[in-house]
Amino acid sequence: MELQEFFMVVAITIGLVSVCMSLINFVRWVWVIFLRPPKKLKEYGSWAIITGSAQGIGKALAFEMASEGLNIILVDKNHSALEATSNELRNKNGGRVEIKSIVMDLAKLSGEEIVNAIDGGTKGLDVGILINNAGMSYPFPKFFHEVDLELMDNIMKVNMEAATWMTTAVLPGMLKKKKGAIVNIGSSSTEIASSFPLYTLYATTKALMIKVMQVPLFVATRLAKIQKSSLFIPSPETFSKSSIQWIGHDNLCTPYWSHSVMGFFGRALPHALLNTTIFWYFLRNRKRGQLSELQKGSTLQQQREMGLTCMWAARLSSSRGPLHGAISPSLEAISPRLEAISPRLDAISPCLEVISPLLQGFCFDAKSPRPALGHML
After folding, report:
1. Which of 53, 205, 245, 311 is most buried when burial is the number of CB atoms within 10 A of its CB?
2. Helix residue spans in 233-372 (DSSP H)
């Protein structure tokens, strides 16, 4: 055999092996996504704990597990939303399962307090499944230095410390009976994308349990700031159906089929291209978030000013005597003029804010107890 023919045979062999491996992987993907039977979750234990279960994915998982006959322990900081979810679960399942609620703000409690609260709430219960679903992120994309310290601390506590302490609380009981399942709901920001610009802290904290978690992409939840579901953005209910089918099978998985397809293409893209695309997409959302925040602040300021105006008007109208009768017509006469000059005052307001510190430095009147003009501004 000539050398050229030898290389031809080697190349064909490598190509056939590659095609066969790809075909095998595709058949396996079809099997695990659509055909593989799920585990019987009640075999792990009769109770399941779900954090962040008052809404979104956590709430949907609670309904799915209750439909499988599991008793549910709901953990969330929102008491009213937690109570509403508990009532919905009881009404839907007709008393076939038990529902308990633990109101707990994972961002405010220490690790010891979390463990003690879970120990007290689960005493005597056969807890077989823990789902660390609670998560926290920015209100909109931000550069790292723009994240305020309180929000930064809360994100680290909820996304990292809380999951660790919740696992610490339930693990001894699972080890004692030699069975149990711990599910960490992660993020594609840590597994599919090589980086996650403008959400750096969120992605970093979600990467704590990167080897043992379920990886959703975008789901129509409040955390993701997405309201409408679609083929590639499932609702929490649709995602949860896929999620529970993977419990007990794989340590690291992307449960929903379209997320798995998107992850395949995302990993195939060059990192530089993927990172640049994500960056520009989030940069545009950052500008929208900043604009919304400014508008919200302006609205609150106007509401405060209106409140002060109404307060003084109420005091004035409640006063009695000749002075009230004398000035009331005058106020009514100048009211249209005040409305006319209001836009002009709004226009010069930024200028007043700039010169206010200067005026405060020069307009101090030591003889009068009343504040001078600079202090009034």
Report:
1. 53
2. 236-246, 257-268, 271-318, 322-362
Spatial distance between the Cα atoms of 97 and 94, rounded to a whole number of angstroms? 8
Lowest mean pLDDT of 97-111, 117-131, 361-375, name the range: 361-375
Catalytic annotation present for 256: no
CA 194 – CA 144 distance, rounded (Å): 17
Q: Please check the confidence at residue 210 and state whether its pLDDT lies above 80.
A: no
What is the tens place of the pLDDT at every residue in 86-100? 999 999 988 889 999
- Spatial separation of the C-alpha atoms in residues 324 and 59, rounded to whole Å: 59
**Contact yes or no for 60/255 (Cβ under 8 A):** no
From the CB of residue 83, how many other CB atoms can be counted at a distance below 10 Å?
15
* Residue 57: strand, helix, or coil: helix
- Give the burial string for 163-192 (b: 16+ CB within 10 Å, else e): bebbbebbeebbeeeeebbbbbbbbbbbbb
* H or E, element range at 202: helix 200-206
Q: State residue 292's pLDDT score.
A: 86
Q: Can you give the pTM of this predicted structure?
A: 0.77
Closest CA to 70 of 88, 102, 44: 44
Name the residue with tokens 């092996």: 17
- CB-based contact 131:58 (threshold 8 Å): yes
Q: Which residue among 44, 202, 256, 281 is the active-site one?
A: 202
Name the DSSP letter for residue 43. Answer: G
Give CA 309 to chain center in angstroms. 38
CA 222 to each of CA 53, 58, 160, 202, 325: distance values in angstroms, whole numbers, following the listed order: 13, 12, 20, 15, 54
pLDDT for the residue 350: 54
What's the CA gap between 330 and 314, in Å, rounded? 16
Tokens at residue 244, please?
A: 């529970």
User: Between the CA atoms of 215, 217, 223 and 224, what dihedral angle is there, to the nearest 10 degrees?
Assistant: 170
CA dist 53 and 103 (Å) reads 11
